[in-house]
Amino acid sequence: MVGNDWVNSYLEAILAAEPKFGDSKSSLMLRERGHFNPSRYFVEEVITGFDETDLHRSWVQAAATRSPQDRNTRLENLCWRIWNLARQKKQIEGKNAKRVAKRNLLREKALKEVSADMSEDFSEGEKADVPGEIPTLSDGKTKGRMSRVSSVDVFENWFAQHKEKKLYIVLISLHGLIRGENMELGRDSDTGGQVKYVVELARALASMPGVYRVDLLTRQVTAPGVDSSYSEPTEMLNPLDTDNTEQEHGESSGAYIVRIPFGPKDKYVQKELLWPHIPEFVDRALERIMKTSKALDEEIGEGGQVWPVSIHGHYADAGDSAALLSGALNVPMVFTGHSLGRDKLEQLLKQGRPKEEINSNYKIMRRIEAEELCLDASEIVITSTRQEIEEQWNLYDGFDPVLERKLRARMKRGVSCLGRFMPRMVVIPPGMEFHHIVPHDVDGDGEGGRDGEDPQSPDPPIWSEIMRFFSNPRKPMILALARPDPKKNLVTLVKAFGECRPLRELANLTLIMGNRNDIDELSTTNASVLLSILKLIDKYDLYGQVAMPKHHKQSDVPEIYRLAAKTKGVFINPAFIEPFGLTLIEAGAHGLPTVATINGGPVDIHRVLDNGLLVDPHDQQAISDALLKLVSDKQLWTRCRQNGLKNIHLFSWPEHCKTYLARIASCKQRHPKWQRVEFENSDSDSPSDSLRDIHDISLNLKLSLDGEKSVDTNLDAEDITSERKAKLEKAISTMSQKKISTEKIDSKMPTLKRRKHIFVISVDCSTTSDLLSVVKTVIDVAGQSGSTGFILSTSMTISETHAALLSGGLKPQDFDAVICNSGSELYFTASPSEDKTVLPYTHDPDYHSHIEFRWGGENLRKTLIRWISSVEDKKKMKQGEVLSEDEASSTNFCLSFKVKDPSSIPPMKELRKLMRIQALRCNVVYCQNGARLNVIPVLASRSQALRYLLVRWGIDLSNMVVFVGDSGDTDYEGLLGGVHKTVILKGIANDLRELHGNRSYPMEDVTPLNSPNITEAEECGRDAIKTALEKLGINLLKA
């Protein structure tokens, strides 16, 4: 078995220690002679897919034991452990099968329900595009190639219509160390290919026509052992085009790395530990983007803020941040996973690793939830290959290829999708820079040189380093470039080469396997691969035919490709699975034909370049046959070389960016367009006199209706029908029935903007009396200075909140704003009206248009009602309903349900999964001690409402102090992090911890416990709260 030759070695030692099992010498060649060795077969089958580190360590100790008796005892123990692994493997396979079957059953059920809702068959003639393809605009000549070829026409058409457009694009990549020059790739596991990708993408996008500025947001790192360049707030990336772009656009044009400080200071944090600090990054990034938008408006002069055309998150941590920023700014989101958590989880589970251990090491469940949120919020998900869509994204609740095609077909026919949405999966392989590559001109004898190259110039040093291995260096070179990892399948390649005599006679083999000083210094896995290859070289007597240089520089890699092309060689990537295959593109750019695995990205690359052959990596004979065919057939070799050179430009960064921008152009631009709000003149120095009138404040219906006049080219845009407009108009009468004032109402907004401190009371209590007690205490602590404002944040409706305040002897005017229905409603308080039936609150005119993205509305309600029925059937309760719709508490953007017995309903994660499987995007919140279930828009929440105050009204988040209890509603975790201060009132809401009992990931994974912005008050008392505020640097006496 590949990568497990040490297993063979200790098995042979077992056979030598126990003669009755067979002669040890004869056992060495049993498999090679065609005989079946059941013992060896058993060991190999058992070990496959398991982490062998501990077992290998035991074998090393056994092999080093001098005493034969002790040695035999240890070897016997190893045999028992191998048997135990076999049992574990069968158990794991059974669990995996059950998990897959359960997931498939849920999806089948969801598809049936969706089909029933839509009540239309998906006929053959109505099929939409395969996920990841762009509708072909040409005459069919590009058939069979990757979708982005046709997207050039889309980009050209778009650019012709938007010549004067100056786009602002935001990219986010949080982990690792990012800088524009001298990137430290490989410094650690977080600083790898993604760093290079995002920097080159930013630089390439900034060079495209129509793009004015690109900001790449990352973490600012100031830590011992880390270069000071990573602490610079801003770094301008050198443009690809050296023309005078600065003179054309001004100082702010181009691409920039913007480093945002968040998380522990003076410490480099690995990506698994960044999760608790994501909210802080979001808040600081939000402030930075808004400042940049205003500055760009002043520079470009378009008469309004220049909002980002998209926010693009890279990897799960940045995707989670991009989703929150997208919701706060109401701009389209794009996501690239790079690698996915569910796929990694599946692989680790197959190795027999306990799920608890996996989550502890990798915080994998938090990562998966972030990726699910990205599916909820993204307009576009960019992948490198179709394999990533079909085999990796297909593992997620929020994406199903069958349902995606069904929805796509309905949208192309102009049929309503009934509130269901899927992100657009687009295959856009990473770009490359080819301007520095000049392919070798190869003559008929295999000799050649580059155009303009001096024939007398010395060969690159790496050539002689490789050539010294060969007895006949003029033979074609078979080149493999990969680290010595079992997954790269290099051992099978060497076996294929060694066992094919014609191939050995025609070609040499070069293996570039990283850098090493001593094999013993390598990891166990890498060392075992290298040792296996060395044994095979000796076994097949490949001396003089295989090169394995110990060292090479990154700058040597192009010269290695050149050498292989000069000898009319072949490049091979025989990996078992290759997510993308960048080396295949590099080889093609140098005119080198390729042989590649049929599993993963190489299939897409081959479809475009058509410069080689695909093989099954498990089929040793197929590998040797493909290599022999390319090496021996000179006409085939030449044709593959020419095809590669002709088509390689399709993988350039300009081509990547054309497809990228064409996709962004198809998104519905939903930038904030605030209603005009006029305030009456007042004395700005007097907070008590600063109440002003707001004119034309209602439910933002005008914006919602008028905003649909523009042409919408986004396939995922919300369906606007007469039914939808009727509901919006109905909201006006609903508002009037509730007697909430909407015209000429004194508003606290100007006062709120000038508060020195804003206390946000977000304490979730089981009883109204407990909540009122907390509210009175916090107000009492603040005193009557007028410099402190108050916002009440709750899951109750506005009418329930108003009644609660009056019952406790409090006035609505004690608060500047009220956040209701778990963050789906935002009101500002106003002066009492002479009409006592009118509630003294003003609804924010723009809030609903800001949070309505992908809101399912009535169709979501129907699905929830059906779910309620299924829950009742499962519980078989005869004493009334488990849940019931609470129409009195429901609003246009909050569906409320009463819960009879919280212990009888599934946890929040199960309901969230149900919604995602059905492509209904929403935020589910269990509140009021589990007695109520609020379902609100996917990007709405109490924490997002605070960010809206920054975006819409310029309220400084750092001036806010959020008061919470020991626990709270299921949206509790979102209130803890950020740039605002947080006071946790100990002893309050302890009884709500049960709501968080069945979480996908522990609260500790997302709570910034050591943050200087979070403190605890020992009790909900005046002195304890004052002490807590002083710890946060807030002295109310000086205020």
Automatic annotation (TrEMBL):
Its EC number is 2.4.1.14. Coiled coil: none annotated. Residues 122-143, 440-460 are annotated as: Disordered. InterPro entries: Glyco_trans_1 (IPR001296), HAD_sf (IPR023214), SPP-like_dom (IPR006380), SPS (IPR044161), SPS_C (IPR035659), SPS_pln (IPR012819), Sucrose_synth_GT-B1 (IPR000368). Homodimer or homotetramer. Belongs to the glycosyltransferase 1 family. This is Sucrose-phosphate synthase. It comes from Eruca vesicaria subsp. sativa. The lineage of its organism: Eukaryota, Viridiplantae, Streptophyta, Embryophyta, Tracheophyta.
